[in-house]
Amino acid sequence: MTSRKLAAGAVFPAIEIPMLNGGRRALPTPSGNYDWMLVVVYRGKHCPLCTKYLQELNSVLPALNELGVDVVAVSADSEDRASAQMREVRPAFDVGYGLTIPQIEEMGLYISGPRNGVDVEKPFAEPGLFVIDQDGIVQIIDISNVPFSRPDLEWIAKGIGFRRGPMKEAPINGTYV
């Protein structure tokens, strides 16, 4: 197995996803008055840790929005499965569904098959978190192959504030050549 990982400092791939609230969203284009975007890829309905993480995201959302960051969570789940999970999460952020394997691969995420979970219908993306600036450049990236290894969302918000403030002129971390 080989995999191509998306690098810090790279342009985030143009990916269009259907949204639970209707319509489609183009990643990494923020909505409204936001100029940065946080994309959280979660495993799906079968993952109770994802439900907890997305509930935590709700509590950090005001700080992220204050920093000018739009937030979208997305999985490979069907619309029905994503809707069922979001009834428990009650997100204040946009939620997309139906990520395809080629889209997951474009983001450089790990992919697991149905045997890597309970009540799983098809291959799914393992967790990923991407902070993307106004130019579509990945400023912060975190990918994992397991559901229990994810960045602390409060620290992500603080890090974005630092990146947009005192470190805005510094090179993107991890891009030394």
From TrEMBL:
Q: Which Gene3D superfamilies match?
A: Glutaredoxin
The record's listing under Pfam families reads: AhpC-TSA
Q: Does the keyword Repeat apply?
A: no
Q: Does the keyword Acetylation apply?
A: no
PROSITE patterns on file = THIOREDOXIN_2 (PS51352)
Q: Which SUPFAM superfamilies does the entry link to? A: Thioredoxin-like (SSF52833)
Keywords for this protein: Oxidoreductase, Peroxidase
Under Gene Ontology molecular function, one entry of this record is:
peroxidase activity
Which residue intervals define the domain Thioredoxin in the entry?
A: 6-165
- Return the protein name: Thioredoxin peroxidase
